[in-house]
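Homework-ish question, so no full write-ups if that breaks the rules, but can someone show me the predicted structure for this set?
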Amino acid sequence: MANRSSGRWYCTMAGHDAGNQYQFTGFAKYFNSYTLQGRKNCVLATYAGIAAIFLFFKLKPKKQKQIAEK
Amino acid sequence: MTLSFFDQFSLTTFMGIPLIALALTLPWILFPTPQNRCLNNRLSTLQAWFIRQFTHQLFLPINQGGHKWALLLASLLIFLITLNLLGMLPYTFTPTTQLSMNMGLAIPLWLATVLIGARYQPNHTLAHLLPVGTPGLLIPILIMIETISLFIRPIALGIRLTANLTAGHLLIQLISTAAFHLLFIMPSVSLLTTTLLLLLTILELAVAIIQAYVFVLLVSLYLQESV
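A: Not a homework solution, just the prediction itself:
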């Protein structure tokens, strides 16, 4: 997308738009793959999910296995 | 002492002192120093014209904030082209065949682009990991794929340059050895092999220039995403 300001053309990269043309409601307003904030939130949610799964298996108690072995 | 085909890539030493520092610094002597004259000599003018044209083309798609990288990328291109082309001379050591050196260039440059993006445009940097219009079910998968591809970039940068230069030098040595040994056995086949060697050398000259350009171009593309 190109715009003209003070006699010079400035080009903005595709994907760096604010996504004002999209009108999402509800959950899709914060998590979608079209707006900048939506994409950012999806990325953060995915990383949080992966971290949660990792922590779950890391901190999972192993006492049940020890009792079964005894 | 019997030499293997990979001995051409071993670090040059003189009385135990590695000469790679000389191999990296001495090529700069070949380039004229720009002088404060209105009209320079032909070589200086040609050098300045080439650097200006390259820098202009490379930084056309990059925003103003990335233009401070112009000196770094222009000198990196000249550096890599010089090392690669000097390495095409017989019995010269090519520093860019060393993976350690190429990774030493690739990782800091890539990391700098990532950190600049994370520092000045964190939202854009994170949003870049998810392509626009991705279907809902594919979002987590694609984010993981994009993250992996992000971290593979410096490895690919370094290995691409190393592998291309190493493979080219190895092929030249193999075919030249074959042409030499066939000269006394089957001269006609040796002539064909020499013709192949000539064509391969021309190809390797092009690869030497192109791989240096690709390295710098990819770094500029990573920078373009971050500024």
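Now go work out the reasoning yourself. Hint: Chain B touches chain A at residues 61, 123-124, 126-136, 139-140, 143-144, 224 (CB under 8 Å).
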